[in-house]
């Protein structure tokens, strides 16, 4: 706004200066003043040289009219006034479109406030990024601790449930639900907690297919026993030679348990020392232990009560050396 005002002042001063020169000096005389004896300047009567008085009586003197220069400064002044009016109008229009000093100050303050908010938002974004990285790191640590806690919990359950006398009674709950899930292809095999033939003896477990396995699939209950890697395998005799008995226990109190036994084949790899990196050897047992009809509706026993089945494994400890 201040720049425009200065421009207008310069335009006005230039116009006034030009108008002043035009009024003092007619066109063509601005660069210098003619001498007083110039006939064009004085408007005097002109006679040819040497004939001033001789021809005075023959004709009237030739009068050179004084050239009028008063209209040109007026036209120039009028044009300058028009230009000045146009400039003033444009300045007024521009001035109305520009904010005042107070408004400019308010805009500056608003811009400063916006810049501060942007800086704060950027700092917050960086802080959130740091928090996200910390969250990921802590989440990873939490997952590790949760996995370790689950392992410790499982180990504790194994310690509580395990036995060291070569016997294992396994309680299977939700029998029908689990059998239906197995028939649908989910969790085809159930495994018991490990049991041992002594504190430093063989480590074993029971496996059950509630809907049958192999020849007994869909018709029989299948029961197996597996040898697992133990902490003292290097001190034990291999292959495993002890007779194993598997039973489905009668819950009626009559003691009409269903039992089948097998004696290990010393040539079978299932009874050799398990590899340390393996989970277990190949399971050995009975694919057709008992039909599902007899299991659910026996004549003289109750094998399934309150949707619960009890399975027992017993190792013949005769001739087994205890460390």
UniProtKB/TrEMBL annotation:
It comes from the Eukaryota. Residues 31-41 have a biased composition (Basic and acidic residues). The keyword Coiled coil applies. Residues 101-162 form a coiled coil. GO terms for cellular component: cytoplasmic side of plasma membrane. It holds the Pfam family TRAF-mep_MATH. Residues 165-315 form the MATH domain. InterPro entries: MATH/TRAF_dom (IPR002083), TRAF-like (IPR008974), TRAF1-6_MATH_dom (IPR049342). The keyword rRNA-binding does not apply. GO terms for molecular function: thioesterase binding; tumor necrosis factor receptor binding. GO terms for biological process: apoptotic process; regulation of canonical NF-kappaB signal transduction. Residues 30-80 are annotated as: Disordered. SUPFAM superfamilies: TRAF domain-like. PANTHER family: TNF RECEPTOR ASSOCIATED FACTOR, TNF RECEPTOR-ASSOCIATED FACTOR 5. This is TNF receptor-associated factor 5-like protein. It comes from Lates japonicus (Japanese lates).
């Amino acid at each position: 706004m201040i720049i425009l005002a200065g421009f207008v002042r310069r335009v006005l001063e230039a116009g006034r200066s030009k108008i002043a020169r035009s009024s003092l000096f007619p066109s063509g005389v601005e660069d210098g003043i003619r001498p007083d004896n110039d006939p064009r300047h004085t408007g005097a009567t002109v006679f040819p040289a040497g004939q001033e008085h001789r021809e005075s009586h023959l004709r009237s003197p030739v009068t050179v009219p004084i050239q009028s220069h008063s209209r040109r400064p007026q036209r120039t002044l009028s044009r300058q006034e028009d230009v000045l009016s146009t400039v003033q109008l444009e300045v007024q229009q521009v001035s109305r479109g520009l904010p005042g000093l107070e408004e400019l100050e308010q805009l500056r303050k608003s811009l400063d406030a916006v810049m501060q908010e942007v800086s704060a938002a950027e700092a917050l974004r960086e802080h959130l990024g740091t928090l996200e990285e910390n969250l990921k790191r802590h989440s990873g640590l939490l997952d590790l601790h949760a996995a370790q806690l689950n392992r410790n919990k499982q180990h504790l359950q194994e310690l509580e449930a395990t036995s060291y006398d070569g016997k294992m009674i396994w309680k299977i709950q939700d029998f029908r639900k689990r059998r239906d899930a197995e028939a649908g292809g989910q969790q085809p095999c159930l495994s018991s907690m490990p049991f041992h033939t002594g504190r430093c003896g063989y480590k074993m477990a029971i496996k059950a297919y509630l809907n049958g396995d192999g020849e007994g699939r869909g018709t029989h209950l299948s029961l197996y026993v597996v040898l697992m890697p133990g902490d003292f395998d290097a001190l034990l005799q291999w292959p495993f030679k002890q007779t194993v008995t598997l039973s489905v226990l009668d819950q009626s109190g009559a003691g009409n348990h269903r039992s089948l036994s097998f004696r290990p084949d010393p040539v079978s790899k299932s009874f050799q020392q398990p590899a340390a990196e393996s989970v277990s050897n190949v399971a050995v047992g009975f694919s057709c232990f008992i039909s599902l009809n007899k299991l659910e509706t026996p004549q003289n026993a109750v094998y399934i009560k309150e949707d619960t089945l009890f399975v027992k494994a017993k190792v013949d400890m005769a001739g087994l050396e205890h460390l």
